[in-house]
Design a protein that fits this description.
Blueprint: E1 8-12, H1 16-26, E2 33-36, H2 39-43, E3 52-57, E4 59-60, E5 63-64, H3 65-75, E6 81-85, H4 90-98, E7 103-106, H5 111-140, H6 143-147, H7 153-165, E8 172-175, H8 182-191, E9 200-204, H9 210-218, E10 219-220, E11 232-233, H10 235-238, E12 243-247, H11 254-266, E13 268-269, E14 278-279, E15 283-288, H12 300-306, E16 309-312, H13 323-338, H14 347-355, H15 361-374, H16 380-385, H17 389-394, H18 400-418, H19 423-430, H20 434-443
Parallel strand pairs: 1-2, 1-3, 3-6, 6-7, 8-15, 8-16, 9-12, 12-15
Antiparallel strand pairs: 4-5, 10-11, 13-14
Helix pairs in contact: 5-13, 13-15
Length: about 450
């Protein structure tokens, strides 16, 4: 785990003996401590976002500790201030906490109580500063750089092509593996086009039953079929003046492909149950994980209509230069969302990220980064391969062959989990023959049915 940011402790008290004793006590656990004999001298040293917490007396001849705390909050409202108070001042201290003072310690000081309060304040300060750092990094990015993160040559080319194609009111085909961010690219095309004020409508063609695809795309009139209790506007009409994103378009049936082709040719639609033709003018952005040129189940006349412009999103394994940057970005996002302290990656964690080939691409990385953040930098190997901690601890006693077998088994299990037991998808991903795959399933006692329909 990386070294945490060192937080300085300011001790403010007019009583020299108390200052000396307090500094001596704290110096056993904290490396940076400074003391001041008055609020005025301490206040002159404080600036916004300073890595510091303050321990101050409430009543001092040179100034009131409560007024000092309020002045500190005007400089930085997140800076923790702990008040040390006499018995008669407890009601004042409690009221002060309602106005932002972090904590109060009653005199005579209980050492354990003081140390626990200071540690909580130190942790709070680290968290607020780490979140601020993460927010600053996010705000430094702008435009397309903030949307499509990465400096690899392939990503630079993608961003350049996207910005070139976006203003052209042409159909665009996006190619990319599962989880690479095809919808994000499609939305960017829309947002950087003249249609940005219109609707961006997304539809996953693979998620629609074939019998409902026409109703979803073209809409229907009331009474068009048994369950049509009222009229429904289809995606093509709803996207009029904007953009329609058709993900996994290769999943459309041939009959639906023919109907979509007519829309592209004539610019009109007819809802189910209606003879009326309605004009529609939306930009079609399509996406596929398969090559559609000469695809036996995809009409080539439709293909040539859809692929006027083309964008290809590289998988993570082909842009290793971006992996650590992306992972840290998603970890920082999770830390900000869940108010968790951001801890930079260690060198060892970075090597594990680069060694993994990310079959689920960005979607998988977001999942791993989120779990990494909320579990306090949990071992990445466990997160990437779903290995139990006890298994990892025992691996140091295994031979090289045994470790390779463990890696192979975990790899197969992770792919089965990713593709929910779809053997064909796993075979394509791992580039394995079915016979070899079946032999490995038998060797590792893996049942593919255990992974089907897992959510």
């Amino acid at each position: 785990m990386p070294e945490q940011q060192i937080i300085k402790i300011m001790v403010v008290d007019d009583d020299k003996d108390i200052r000396v004793n307090t500094v001596d006590l704290l110096s056993t656990q904290y490396p940076r401590i400074v003391d001041f004999d008055s609020p005025q001298t301490a206040l002159a040293e404080i600036y916004p976002h300073m890595p510091v917490i303050i321990l101050t007396d409430l009543r001092m001849p040179g100034g009131d500790g409560l007024e000092f705390a309020q002045a500190v909050r005007e400089i930085d409202e997140d800076l923790p201030v702990i008040l040390m108070t006499g018995y008669g001042d407890i009601s004042i201290a409690v009221d002060a906490m309602k106005h932002g003072v972090y904590d109060f310690i009653e005199k005579p000081v209980d050492t354990d109580r003081l140390l626990k309060s200071i540690q909580r304040a130190v942790d709070k300060r680290r968290l607020s500063l780490s979140l601020l750092e993460a927010q600053n990094k996010l705000e430094q990015q702008s435009g397309i750089e903030a949307r499509l993160i990465g400096n690899s040559p392939m990503m630079k080319q993608l961003k350049q092509s996207l910005l070139q194609l976006a203003p052209m009111d042409l159909p665009i085909m996006i190619y990319g593996e599962t989880g690479v961010g095809k919808e994000l690219v499609a939305r960017s095309l829309h947002d950087y086009s003249e249609r940005k004020d219109g609707n961006f409508v997304a539809l996953n063609c693979a998620a629609i039953p074939e019998q409902l695809a026409e109703a979803e795309l073209f809409g229907y009139e009331k009474g068009a079929f048994t369950d049509a209790k009222s009229a429904h506007i289809g995606k093509l009409e709803y996207a009029n003046g904007g953009s329609l994103f058709l993900d996994e378009i290769e999943s459309l049936s041939l009959s639906m492909q023919a109907k979509l082709l007519r829309v592209l040719q004539d610019g009109v639609i007819s809802p189910l149950g209606s003879n009326e033709e309605r004009k529609t003018n939306c930009r079609i952005i399509s996406a596929s994980k398969d090559e559609l040129r000469n695809h036996q189940d995809f009409r080539q006349d439709l293909f040539f209509r859809l692929q006027v412009g083309e964008l290809r999103i590289p998988p993570l394994r082909q842009r290793k230069e971006d992996i650590i940057m992306l992972f840290e970005y998603f970890v920082m996002q999770s830390c900000e969302n869940f108010k968790i302290e951001y801890l930079p990656l260690t060198d060892d964690s970075g090597k594990q990220l680069l060694a993994y080939d990310w079959p689920g691409n960005i979607r998988e990385m977001i999942n791993v980064a989120t779990r990494y953040a909320i579990n306090g930098c949990q071992n990445l190997k466990q997160l990437l391969f779903n290995v139990e901690p006890s298994v990892m601890e025992n691996q140091q006693d295994l031979s090289l062959k045994e470790q390779l077998n463990d890696y192979e088994e975990n790899l197969i299990r992770s792919r089965l989990a990713l593709y929910e037991g779809n053997v064909s998808a796993v075979l394509a991903d791992l580039k394995l023959e079915r016979r070899t795959f079946n032999q490995k399933l038998s060797r590792y006692n893996i049942s593919t049915t255990d992974y089907k329909n897992k959510k």
